[in-house]
Design goal:
Elements: E1 2-11, E2 14-24, E3 29-33, H1 40-47, E4 55-60, E5 63-64, H2 69-73, E6 76-79, H3 91-101, H4 106-119, H5 135-147, E7 153-157, H6 165-178, E8 183-187, H7 191-197, E9 200-205, E10 208-213, H8 215-221, E11 230-235, H9 239-247, E12 252-261, E13 264-271, H10 277-287, E14 290-296, H11 301-308, H12 317-322
Parallel strand pairs: 3-8, 3-9, 6-7, 7-8
Antiparallel strand pairs: 1-2, 1-4, 4-5, 9-10, 11-13, 11-14, 12-13
Helix pairs in contact: 3-4, 4-5
Length: 331
């Protein structure tokens, strides 16, 4: 549905993107990640027909975005990072106006607006002025705008920016519900949101794709150890004795006590070498420990991202930490 080949865009002497190539297949939900200035927003504006490129090719549902722009754009619903709305218009009125601009036939506008309102949960505010809506509802109106002409493709640039946690969950659920009907390219600075929503991830840095794959595939390719820690929860008469015994095992680098309650003790274990869970299970059986949990800690997407995009000298540790949970950390 989206094919990009050799895309290049410069601002003066600075390259925003350079020789960028990737594709998004029909029905995919693809996350588009990158640090500040990586070229994400520039790429999405070019894909949406809002910005020309210096060179390269972009095809949207088979149409060239540059030579056949109107047909290509009719297949796209675009939600920019900062949603441009008319605050003096009512929600239903605004969506009807946008539907007419997008070429929806006049006899079908009402139907399409009703569908978008229902899908985006705007029924209760349909007659309300856009300017009186909360940030969360304005994002919903922007998403309804993107959907009102029933596009094949949705391009969503930071759809949850500036929202509180409850609003983020609502918009995330809405996007997941759209996945069965649309091909989606989604940019977000909230990496947990990308992992929860997207089937595949593209990571861009300095205007080039540096990694692509499912979260599982990226974990397999990253330099971050896959079994960095293991959680072991057992019922034992002496937590300190069990801790000494764990630390004496040759396949354990270090074991520490996390929690202890009513005889149940949870240990965090750093393995030495291969995944030792089978050996730990056999050890628990041999020592008569009752076992309630034995699990690996999955590498967070934040660590995977950092392994492909090392921090630049002017990027502080605080900024990197914010990638996972703070609005505005990436653009």
């Amino acid at each position: 549905m989206i094919t990009v080949q050799g895309l290049t865009k410069s601002y003066g002497t600075a390259d925003a993107i350079r020789d960028l190539s990737f594709s998004v297949d029909q029905g995919e939900v693809v996350g588009f990640l990158g640090p500040n200035g990586a070229g994400k927003s520039t790429t999405m504006k070019i894909l949406s027909g809002y910005l020309p490129a210096d060179s390269g090719e972009v095809r949207i549902a088979g149409f060239d975005i540059f030579s056949d722009s109107l047909k290509a754009r009719s297949r796209i619903g675009y939600l920019p990072e900062n949603v441009p709305l008319y605050p003096e218009m009512r929600v239903g009125e605004y969506l009807a106006y946008r539907a007419s601009l997008k070429g929806v036939r006049s006899r079908r506008i009402r139907e399409k607006v009703e569908d978008a309102v229902q899908l985006c949960g705007l029924r209760n505010v349909q007659k309300q002025l856009v300017g009186t809506l909360s940030k969360g509802y304005r994002q919903r109106v922007g998403l309804a705008d993107a959907l009102v002409n029933e596009p094949d493709i949705l391009i969503l640039d930071e759809p949850t920016i500036g929202l509180d946690p409850n609003q983020i969950r609502e918009v995330r659920a809405l996007i997941k519900g759209l996945a069965s009907r649309h091909t989606i390219l989604l940019s977000s600075h909230i990496l947990s949101e990308v992992e929860a929503t997207c089937s595949r991830i593209l990571i861009i840095n300095k205007g080039r794709i540096v990694a692509t794959g499912t979260p599982t595939e990226l974990r397999q390719r990253t330099s971050v150890p896959l079994s960095r820690t293991i959680r072991l929860e057992i019922l034992t008469e002496s937590s300190s004795a069990a801790l000494r015994e764990l630390n004496s095992l040759p396949y354990i680098s270090k074991a520490t006590t996390l929690t202890e309650s009513e005889g149940w003790v949870t240990y965090e274990i750093s393995p030495r070498g291969e995944d030792p869970r089978l050996l730990l299970y056999e050890e628990a059986v041999r020592r008569g420990w009752k076992l309630r949990e034995l699990s690996t800690r999955e590498v967070p997407l934040e660590e995977i991202f950092s392994s492909f995009v090392p921090a630049s000298p002017d990027q502080s540790a605080t900024e990197l930490q914010s990638l996972g949970n703070q609005p505005g950390a990436m653009s």
